[in-house]
Amino acid sequence: MQFKNGRFTVSGVDLLNLTEEYGAPLYVYDANKMKQQYERIHRAFSGVKRLRINYACKALTNLNVLRLFRQLGSGLDTVSMQEVELGLMAGFDPHDILFTPNCVSLEEVNEAVTKGVRINIDNISILEQFGDQHRGVPVCIRLNPHIMAGGNSKISVGHIDSKFGISIHQVPHVLKVVNALDLKVEGLHMHTGSDILDAQVFLQAVEILLRAAGDFPDLDYLDFGSGFKVPYKEGGIATDIEDLGQQLSERFNEFCAGYGRELELMFEPGKFLVSEAGTFLVRTNVVKTTPATVFAGVDSGLNHFIRPMFYDAYHHITNISNPQGKPRIYTVVGYICETDTFGINRQLGEVREGDILAMANAGAYCFMMASNYNSRYRPAEVMILDGKVHLIRRRETMQDLLGTQVEVPELVEPVQA
C-alpha cells in the first residue's frame, strides 16, 4: 500500500475507489507483490542447481492466486483433497502437487494416489498401510526434527510434543518398514513452524534432516518446509532470506556432493508469498467513547479476520479516509457478539463514522479462516494484476447461506394468504 497525493493505492489503484465499487468489507490482493516475493526467494537460492518452490496454498486458495503461481513456475503444497482438486482445476500437473496431510484416513491418501500427486506421509501407521497397498508408488516421509520454532505456540509444529511428522528418533523404525515393504522413498520433509526469527535455528533443523537423509539411498528431493517471517510492524523483524539462502545453498550443495547426485531443494512458502500482498478494507460503523477507551467499531469481525483474536497477531491499521487527520488513540473492534478486537490503542488519523480503515498483511490465513459466524456473509476479494482490477470472489448473499441447507417439510409452515 502506497501513499501518494493524499490517497492510498495498491499498484496505482485507489483503495477508496475500490470500496465505492465493490463495497466493504473487502479483501484486496496485489499480484505484483506476490510475483516479487516469489522471484526474491528464487534469487536467494540461485546457487542451488535444482530448486522447487511449492506454494503452500492453505494460505490463500482462490483459483486465480493458484493460477498466478502456476504461471510463475511454482509447484503446490496441499494439505487436503479439496486443495488437491483446486490445484488440478488451476492447471497444475499432478506431479507438481505435493499432498501433505495430517491425521487423515488411508482412504484420503488412496484418493490422492489416484490423482497422481506426490504423497507425503507423517505417521508410521499410514506408512505401513500405504506400503502394503501401493507397492512401487514413490512416497515422501515427513520427519519431526524436535526443534521449537515459530512465533506462536499454535504455529510451532516441529517440537517433540507436536502431532506433526514422525519423530527423528523413530527413523530406525521407519527404515524397517521401508525395507520390509520395499518402499520407494523419493523425498524427506520437515516443517518447524511459521514466523522463524532465527536462521540458525532453522539451519540446526536442516542438519538433522540431512543426517537422516544419509539413511535413504534413493532420494530425489529434500523439502525443508518454510515458515519464513515477514514484517508486520514498520521496521519489524523478518527472516533474512538472502542470508539464509546463501548459507543453506552452500550446505545443501556440500551434502549433494557427498550423497553422490544432485537432489532437488524444495520449500513450501505460503505466508512469505502472499501475506504482504493483502489489504483488508473495513468501514467504520460507529465511534464510541467510554470513560476509558475510544472505540472505532467497524463492519467486520473475527468472522472475516480472526488472526488478531486467534494468534494475538498484529496487523497495522491505517485510516485511509483521513490519513492526515489529527492523530488520536483508538481501539478498533468488530461487530460480533463476542469480544473481537483488531487493534488496541492504535494511533490513527481522527476516525469518523463512515471512514475506511485498512488492515495490512491480510493476504495469508485471513480470508481462508473466514466463516459465516453470526450468519454474516463472507466478503468479496479483488486482485490487482498489472494495474487492472479483477473481482475474483463476489460477496456472499442469503442464497449462499441457504445453499446447503435442506428443509424438513414437517417444519415448514404454510404461508398465510
Supply the key terms:
417 residues; alpha/beta; Lyase, Ornithine Decarboxylase, Chain A, domain 1; TIM Barrel; 2 domains; 9-stranded mixed β-sheet; 8-stranded parallel beta barrel; globular; pyridoxal phosphate; diaminopimelate decarboxylase activity; pyridoxal phosphate binding; EC 4.1.1.20
The CATH architecture of the largest domain comes to Alpha-Beta Barrel
CATH H-tier superfamily of the largest domain: Alanine racemase
The DSSP helix count reads 12
CATH class of the largest domain: Alpha Beta
Percent of residues in beta strands: 15-25%
Helix content: 25-40%
Major pleated sheet: 9 strands, mixed
What overall form do the CA principal axes indicate? globular
Summed over residues and divided by their number, the pLDDT gives a mean of 94
Q: What is the count of β-strands?
A: 21
C-alpha Rg (nearest Å): 23 Å
Question: What is the total number of structural domains?
Answer: 2
Distance between the termini: 55 Å
Unreliable stretches:
152-159
CATH topology annotation of the largest domain: TIM Barrel
Please identify the structural class as seen in this structure: alpha/beta
Active site: 337 (proton donor)
Cofactor: pyridoxal 5'-phosphate
EC number: 4.1.1.20
GO molecular function: diaminopimelate decarboxylase activity; pyridoxal phosphate binding
